[in-house]
Amino acid sequence: MDTSALADAFRTALDANAFADVHALLHESCAYTMRGEVLHGPDAIVSSYREADERARRSFDTHTYASAINEITQDTATIEFEDSLTLDRRALLHHCRQRIMAASDGLIHHIDHIDLPGEAEAI
Known about the structure:
Elements: H1 3-15, H2 19-25, E1 26-34, E2 37-40, H3 42-59, E3 62-72, E4 76-87, E5 90-102, E6 108-115, H4 119-122
Parallel strand pairs: 1-6
Antiparallel strand pairs: 1-2, 3-4, 4-5, 5-6
Helix pairs in contact: 1-2, 2-3
């Protein structure tokens, strides 16, 4: 799978909370960096995504996810994620980016979470 197809499959699976599909796209030694923390391996990474979704379900009345590929090279892709949330009829949008690094085996070997200015604090 080339980087474009891999990025599309990854973002689509995350948007749909298809965690088994996300797991299948991650190399066994994949690392995920986020806010100074590093998670290693598909199980820990998918658990982090699942926990974030569960927090959103507990904290907000509604939530939907969308994403788009922003930049792509031969072995990296940057994906922008948008969380559309409501709480007490108040609409909130949260944006972040994730840069994935792929290898010739067609799997994701590294993910960098990128907070956009002011986004984490807004939620």
